[in-house]
Amino acid sequence: MSGYSYIKDPAAIYAESFARVRAAGQFGGMTPAMADVAVRLVHACGMPDLVADLAYSGRAVDRAVAALMSGCPVFCDCEMVASGITRRFLPQNNEVIVTLNDPQTKIIAQQQHTTRSAAAIDLWGDLAGAVVAIGNAPTALFRLLERIHDGAAAPAVILGFPVGFVGAAESKQALATDDYGLDFIVVHGTRGGSALAAAAVNALALGAKTS
Predict the structure, then answer these.
(1) pLDDT in tens, 56-109
(2) DSSP assignment, residue 128?
(3) At residue 184, what are phi and psi to the nearest 5 degrees?
(4) Where in 14-68 does DSSP place strands (E)?
(5) Domain assignments of the chain as residue spans, ordered by start
(6) Over the range 131-169, which residues count as b (16 or more CB within 10 Å of their CB) and which as e?
(7) Is 43 considered catalytic here?
(8) CATH of range 10-210; options 1.20.140.10, 3.40.50.10230, 3.30.360.10, 3.40.50.1470
(9) What is the mean pLDDT of the chain?
(10) Could you give phi then psi for residue 87, rounded to 5 degrees?
């Protein structure tokens, strides 16, 4: 037997983790519902300073919760985001849709000379009232904005967490400053990723289920 001392009880680990996040983070000025989302984002990445880069529209949480309660689908830009969504949290067994690996995606990407992530957005169809979670590709977020600018119906909320050093910060800035009045939650800068996008969906889904 080793001499390591650590918490083993799952419930205790869960409770202590979120207690430490709340103690370490700066969630003042947020509504309780938005603070719950922020707490899950910090918990997902282990970075309390993430809150300083968090931006969101005033209606984002309410619109996301209403959309999930109405049974809307959740569109994800990659399988990792979809895999991170805890299905039992979804209040109406909402469909989780990913088209990145659809056979048509590669064809569209070649025709449009773009990434598969961007091409996959063209296969999403009607987004009116849906929840969109982007946790990987900046090109996916840019393409989504282009579709909306071209007349496609806007989703209820866009969770923008593309990650990286080429286009990630720019795509999130474009979403946050868009003239179309889109509702959004983003983490500005290069940070992002599938875990954050999934954590945001999970927080909103839990909020919907308990509302």
Answers:
(1) 999 999 999 999 999 999 999 999 999 999 999 999 999 999 999 999 999 999
(2) T
(3) -155, 160
(4) 54-56
(5) 10-210
(6) bbbbbbbbbbbbbbbebbeeebebbbbbbbbbbeeeebb
(7) yes
(8) 3.40.50.10230
(9) 95
(10) -60, -35
Residue type, 134: I
**What single letter denotes the amino acid at residue 49?**
D
DSSP single-letter state for residue 26:
-
Residue type, 94: N
Taking CA atoms, 160 is separated from 6, 77, 188, 201, 210, in Å, by 35, 10, 9, 11, 24
As to burial, measured by CB atoms within 10 angstroms (0-12 exposed, 13-18 middle, 19+ buried), residue 64 is: buried
Tokens of 203: 């927080």
C-alpha distances (whole Å) from 83 to each of 47, 157, 159, 162, 195 are 22, 20, 16, 16, 9
Mean pLDDT of 49-61: 96
Question: Distance of CA 98 to CAs 95, 132, 210, Å?
Answer: 10, 10, 26
